[in-house]
Design a protein that fits this description.
378 residues, 11 helices, alpha+beta, binds adenosine-5'-diphosphate, globular, binds magnesium ion, 29% helix, 18 strands
Length: 378
């Protein structure tokens, strides 16, 4: 750690975006004694409610961006798609971490794939699609993904052949896309790690992820993959972070196919698959984000229990009104998290449950049973 560059409390940390990731980062910053300012248009957003100051304005509002930049010693983001103009505007007034360059790569699937290929990362077969007569040499079935603004499986279509692909491209708005061979996945894993400006790097134990309808459903830690694969995943993540000269928490999603790893995508921020760290790690990924962007020593990423599992609570759980929370509050091995969102919508991330135990299977069953109990007849 270099004392010269560390940003110490009561300095101000700016947050572009007001969702649950921002909420936890703001809370972590406040615990450490920092002042926090959030820029987010939704007056009821999860992070706005817990910040010292909530600037209610659009992400590209020049006056609000100037205010956020001037108020802050360092500004970070909590979502993947901040407009490039916003980060550039902030960059003129405050330190921005991760850098606008790193965020720009992660928010464009074409730039991201090219970057990964350039630095020698293993990726599945892919091609750019940006015209109505495209016919790239890709094996079908394949997945067409919009290059920008996709998340939680949005902006994606599985296509069986080239003509279906071209129809899907028009349905997705005719915007630049990547087409990926649909891989047969043995497992999905992710590495959540942090890097400081001085090159300090710490990774959490590798997480094993299950998605439903393109949305993360379950994370189990440590991932039940060969130690060789887990080590390699962390090594790839470190190489990616170094190549981006990355500052902050970075998540790398990977596919396991026939015992080999392929990098799926990058998230330039704390990640849903790292939420278990709030309850079962020495340092949460959000505290780690604050430490990394402030240039203080990275915290211990060790687990406080041998295993953890996290299940998301989507708005669907609210179908019959408020779920019977008392059913999960009676077990000391389970932590309930609700993000303070007022309108539950199907598919919207409203909260999550983390459980822990001696074995991954034990934590997984506890978490899944807890969520199931919220569904059964009231
Ligand atoms: P998002 O930005 O929505 O998370 P992803 O590219 O991570 O988009 O895709 C969401 C999920 O869809 C992945 O976690 C995986 O389950 C599935 N998926 C995406 N691409 C592929 C692929 N090429 N082969 C197989 N499954 C895929
Ligand atoms: Mg993803």
């Amino acid at each position: 750690m270099s004392d010269l560059t560390a940003i110490a409390p009561p300095a101000t940390i700016g947050m572009l975006g007001g969702g649950q990731l921002g909420r936890y980062a703001v809370l972590a910053a406040r615990v450490m004694g920092y002042r926090t300012v959030v820029l987010e248009p939704d007056p009821h957003a999860p992070a706005g409610a817990v910040a010292d100051l909530h600037l209610v304005a659009d992400y590209d509002d020049p006056d609000a961006l100037e205010r956020l930049g001037r108020e802050s010693d360092v500004v970070t983001t909590e979502f993947e798609n901040p407009p490039a103009v916003a980060l550039d505007a902030l960059d003129r007034h405050a330190l921005v971490a991760p850098s606008p360059h790193a965020v720009a790569i992660a928010q464009d699937r074409i730039a991201e794939k090219r970057f990964l290929v350039d630095i020698g990362m293993p990726v599945g077969d892919w091609a750019v699609v940006d015209s109505s007569d495209a016919d790239p040499p890709i094996r079908y079935p394949a997945i067409l993904k919009t290059a920008r603004l996709g998340y939680d499986g949005k902006g994606q279509r599985v296509v069986a052949d080239a003509s279906e692909m071209r129809a899907a491209w028009r349905l997705l708005g005719g915007a630049p896309c990547v087409l990926e061979e649909a891989l047969v996945l043995d497992a999905e894993i992710s590495v959540v790690a942090a890097r400081t400006a001085e090159g300090g790097f710490e990774a959490y134990p590798v997480a094993e992820n299950t998605h439903r309808h393109g949305i993360l459903d379950l994370t189990v830690v440590p991932a039940r993959v060969a130690p060789r694969l887990a080590d390699r995943a962390v090594g790839l993540t470190m190489a990616i972070a170094d190549a981006l000269d990355y500052v902050g928490v970075l998540a790398v999603e990977l596919f396991v196919v026939d015992g080999e790893l392929f990098v799926n995508e990058l998230a330039p921020r704390p990640h849903n698959s790292g939420h278990w760290t709030l309850d079962v790690a020495q340092t949460s990924q959000f505290a780690q984000q604050i430490r990394a962007v402030c240039g203080v020593a990275l915290g211990d990423t060790g687990m406080t229990r041998p295993a953890a599992a996290m299940v998301n609570l989507l708005g669907d759980v609210w179908a019959d009104g408020d779920p019977p929370w008392e059913r999960v509050l009676g077990d000391g091995r389970i932590a309930l998290h609700l993000y303070g969102k007022t309108t539950p919508r199907a598919g919207r991330k409203m909260g999550h449950i983390t459980a822990w135990g001696e074995w991954p299977e034990e934590a997984e069953v506890l978490a899944l049973d807890a969520r199931r109990a919220l569904w059964s007849r009231r």
